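Quick check before the chapter quiz. The format below is the same one you will see on the exam, so make sure you can read both the input and the output lines.
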Amino acid sequence: MPIIKSAIKHTRSDERKHVRNQKVRSELKTLFRKITLLAAQDLAKAREEIRDLTSKLDKAAQKGIIHKRKADRKKSRLAGLLAKAESAKSGK
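Here is the expected output.
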């Protein structure tokens, strides 16, 4: 436990940031899972959700909640998932 007053304040601030970051990360993971399921069923809805998730990934990276390259990697994987689903659907 910190003794210095400024360190105590930083600890409180860090805890608030930790809670915020956990919420955002959890939401991103949930949306990612939702889109992977949607891609197999409804492509139009999946495209809308991908647009929403892309925006949220960019915002999280901008705020430093996740790394910029991680956001880019996730967006790339989503685009590949959508392309694969579209090609499978058109191939049928």
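If your answer matched, good. The mean pLDDT is 93.
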